[in-house]
Amino acid sequence: MPEAVFFDLDGTLADTAPDLAAALNRLQAEHQLAPSPLEQLRPQVSNGVRGMLGVGFGLTPDAPRYPAIAERFLQLYASALCVETRLFAGIDEVLSHLDGSGITWGIVTNKAERFARPLIEALGLTSRCACIVGGDTAARPKPFADPLLYACSSAGVAPADSLYIGDDIRDIQAGKAAGMRTIAAAYGYLGSSPPVSSWSADAIIGHPLDLLPLL
């Protein structure tokens, strides 16, 4: 049994795609563009602003317009970041099991802390989790090990006794770099990553409740 379980946020712990898509659609309306459908945007959520603006505006980060449009997108998202966002089905049961078993758990995301913390608070999880580590908390974000090592230090657990679950290949890369067991959340967004079977995760789960037997 692990001492701690750490979760990625978007696409692993919570389905944040509807609110991110809504922010992009509002931004598109400001630019007199037709809205992009959620089904098209959903796989890009794990790629953050870059992924959303790539679909919605055809922009890459090196485009001159990118910084201003990205900042406006983040403003819109911050104003309504937990309207339709929900925990994935089964996550609440998983967290209750961890709490009841005395297993520490925390959240390690590449989402900036200024968005991650209020979102986690809105989901009612802040008082229950041992740590909230954002993409700008440690020196380097995932796929580097820094955020996960920071999380272990904050929670007072050893990486070797911890497990990390995420829905993007960078999550598995970060977990392995930190010396943790890794689990790929195949129910998540997956994005433009290679097939989940090629990530070299220690296990792959198709539903959050599939995590329980692995504990």
From the spread of the alpha carbons, the general shape counts as globular
Distance between the termini: 5 Å
The fraction of residues assigned to DSSP E strands is 5-15%
**Average predicted confidence as pLDDT:** 96
Largest sheet data: 6 strands, parallel
The number of distinct structural domains comes to 2
So what's the CATH class of the largest domain? Alpha Beta
CATH architecture of the largest domain: 3-Layer(aba) Sandwich
Radius of gyration: 17 Å
At the fourth CATH level, what is the homologous superfamily of the largest domain? HAD superfamily/HAD-like
Put simply, the count of helices is 8
Extract low-pLDDT stretches: none
User: Percentage of helical residues?
Assistant: 25-40%
Counted beta strands = 8
Elements, N to C (H/E): EEHHHHEHEHEHEHEE
Describe the strand arrangement of the main beta sheet, using strand numbers: 5-4-1-6-7-8
- Which structural class do you get from the secondary structure elements? alpha/beta
Brief sketch in words of this structure:
The chain is of the alpha/beta class. It has helices at residues 17-30, 38-41, 48-57, 66-78, 91-101, 113-122, 146-155, 169-178, and strands at 4-7, 14-15, 86-87, 104-108, 132-133, 162-166, 181-185, 203-205.
List the helices and strands and how they pair.
Layout: E1 4-7, E2 14-15, H1 17-30, H2 38-41, H3 48-57, H4 66-78, E3 86-87, H5 91-101, E4 104-108, H6 113-122, E5 132-133, H7 146-155, E6 162-166, H8 169-178, E7 181-185, E8 203-205
